[in-house]
Amino acid sequence: MTEHVVIGVDSGGTSTRCAVVTRDGRVLAQGRGGGGNQYSSADPGGAFVSALRAALADAGDVAVDGAVFGVSGAAVGHSRAVATVRGAWESLGLPGSPLVTDDIVVAFAAGSTADAGTVLIAGTGAVAAYVRDGAVARRCDGYGWLLGDEGSAVWIALAGLRAALASIDGRGRPTVLVERLAAALAIAPGDVHAIVRAAYARPPAELGGLAPEVVLAASGGDAVAGDIVAEAAERLLTNLAAVAPDPVGAEPVVLAGALLATGPVADAVHEGLRTRHGVAARTAGDGALGAAGLALRRTGAPASAHARLLAPAAAPGHHPK
Q1: Pick from 310, 261, 320, 315: which is nearest to 290 by CA?
Q2: Are 80 and 46 in contact (CB under 8 A)?
Q3: What CA dihedral angle connects 274, 279, 280 and 286, to 10 degrees?
């Protein structure tokens, strides 16, 4: 028997996730692909095709009633994102035309079924936004690694690399980042030219993969790395406060992205929200499920279907360790 479904896709700088969901909010299948950011990822269209194909292969006999794609970079280049998504969609012979929005809206929908609230995202990039009625009403940052994304994985990685270079030069404090980042880059520690070559040879999104080394160094007690992590959390909190309604927490606050799922940056942000604003933030689940929730609402499914998707992740104060 054919099952009527919607598809939700969440695509960031390093990965794309897809969920096939029934009209009552059951997840039938999921798929993954590479990064789908329109400006920093190598092959966004190929990533969409891979994620869709993998999920649909496991879903069985389905009829697709609608879809929502949350695509990193779509706010800046919406027409480009729409063209890429439609190309992938049509190449697989799927019916209709999916809604293309940015990853901000789907991140909020992955943590709350409310019509309005604030979301803070910190993964490869970083952005804070106030979302209302399925659209971004206000935003702060999210300007990419060159002009912003303060507190993101790429920001942390670049701060770590700069600190390592400063330490080698003698103008900065000693730090284990000299050795840790050299090992991660597969180069000899202390070789500034090798660090520069390795950093410039990588796409910006790929540099974010060095952030865990900085975070681990901070957890191990390295003062320089600790200062970087603390500053990342502070910048994220500042950005959230810039867009949230007054008082912060009057509406749901959702935290999303790998850096805010667990670890010292997440801990510092949660603690900052508690002590400064008395807010117990929600931690978003899979953004693909948020996108699927939006697709369900667009196709007239009951609100309970969206809520069912979020049941494990959307409770206030949920903070996985």
Answers
A1: 310
A2: no
A3: -110
Strands 3-11 and 15-22: antiparallel
Q: What is the mean pLDDT of residues 59-83?
A: 88
Q: Rounded to whole angstroms, how far apart are CA atoms 154 and 38?
A: 17
Please check whether residue 315 lies inside any domain of the structure.
no
Q: What is the DSSP string of 166-226?
A: HHHHTSS---THHHHHHHHHTS-TT-HHHHHHHHHTS-HHHHGGGHHHHHHHHHTT-HHHH
Domain housing 69: 3-111+284-310
pLDDT digits 0-9 by tens, 9-60:
998 877 899 999 999 999 999 999 988 776 667 788 899 999 999 999 999 9
Q: What is the CATH number of the domain that holds 225?
A: 3.30.420.40
Does one domain contain both 156 and 125?
A: yes
Find out whether 125 and 142 touch, Cβ atoms under 8 Å: yes
Structure tokens at 119: 């979301």
What tokens appear for 96 in the block?
């209709």
| Separation between Cα atoms, residue 22 and residue 176, nearest integer Å | 49
| Edge-to-edge strands, sheet with 62-71 | 27-34, 15-22, 3-11, 62-71, 99-101
Instruction: Note whether 126 and 273 are same-domain residues.
Output: yes
Residues 291, 206 share a domain = no
Q: 247: cis peptide before it, omega within 30°?
A: yes
